[in-house]
Amino acid sequence: MSAELISILVLVVVFVIATTRSINMGALAFAAAFAVGELAADLDADGIFAGFPGDLFVVLVGVTYLFSIARSNGTTDWLVHASIRLVGGRIALIPWVMFVIAGALTAIGAVSPAAVAIVAPIALSFAARHGISPLLMGAMVVHGAQGGGFSPISIYGSIVNGIVEREDLPGDEVALFLASLIANVLIAGAVFVLFGGLRLGRGRAVAGDAGSPAEEETRLTAPRVATLVSLIALVVAVLAFDLDAGLTAVTLAVLLSAVWPDTSRKAVGEIAWPTVLLICGVLTYVGVLEEMGTIKWAGEGVGGIGVPLLAALLLCYIGALVSAFASSVGIMGALIPLAVPFLAQGEIGAVGMIAALAVSATVVDVSPFSTNGALVLAAAPDVDRERFFRQLMVYGGVVVAVVPAAAWLVLVVPGWG
């Protein structure tokens, strides 16, 4: 049995154990990375830790630290109240407001995780306050961020269009953007209907209602003003100056803690440490798979299939499955070149194929193992995190199973481009 196949089977075992026993999947994944790396791939510690997501670790810690402070000093309550007033108190519209805000941020240049890091804590605080499903709200935020993620001026769009140009493939920037936007709007609409959006009906939230912010929660105190300035500074730092979201968030949180230690003292304890362990462990194992060539091995095996349409479908599924655990753009950067040989045959339209890969590899970011899904999981207040994790995992699995086939059927089979 090849080392690549062993590594895939071990990943399956990790999933089975984690879902049947009360063991943090991240801890299991670290153990699996050590065993597979040492025994099957002959990797030393440096090779095993090459895939440790240090940047994601800092993002998860920094953003949850900053928003824990915002919750403790009442800033998120103020933001929730502002969101209510924005739509005239119509609770049913709030998920769509969050969808649009997240999409606007990515469309103008924010990377998807940065947009989700900014919007998710506010959106999920509102969901907790008004009894909205956290899965509904979290999915709306993530799909909103992905909906705007492939605009011609966005980070994802620029990267993918650059890959297309480098590989000398025909491309269409507008078609790529519209494909992702329409797909995510449709999925968000389905999520809204299936997870209770229609039951929100004509309900309104106003100050003083049960479960809505009381008057004292809507006043701007000095700590809240400083926290709001910090959140705006985080947005500006990420979008305008391309600074790291995690490091910026940690710095801002430390400054707030230094000035107002009483309201910030418990914030470190409220960082979502189990989620950090979960995500970092799984992604470290995925890094081992990349180091030992498992992902490339699987992709090349699919690319060698002699039936272009079948190969295209399998590439979409590989993109979706692997992207649920790793970098979406990184996966597209690997899969688009693998598609070049059968795209050159002219039987598959390049524009449609690239759009299908883009959609397949990004809509799955609702998975709790992806950066966006992890941020949603970490940002949700007052939830059973294990239950919410399972909900995100099941929903992510449904998206992985359904969307690649739908994207292939709509974008690839007709031969667009």
Automatic annotation (TrEMBL):
Keyword vocabulary terms for this entry: Membrane, Transmembrane, Transmembrane helix
The UniProt record lists the Dicarboxylate carrier MatC N-terminal domain at: 1-149
Spell out the InterPro entries in the cross-references: CitT-rel (IPR030676), MatC_N (IPR009827)
State one Pfam family annotation.
MatC_N
Instruction: State which residue ranges cross the membrane.
Output: 47-67, 79-101, 107-128, 135-155, 175-195, 228-259, 271-288, 309-336, 348-380, 392-416
Q: What protein name applies here?
A: SLC13 family permease
Q: Which PANTHER family match?
A: DICARBOXYLATE TRANSPORTER 2.1, CHLOROPLASTIC
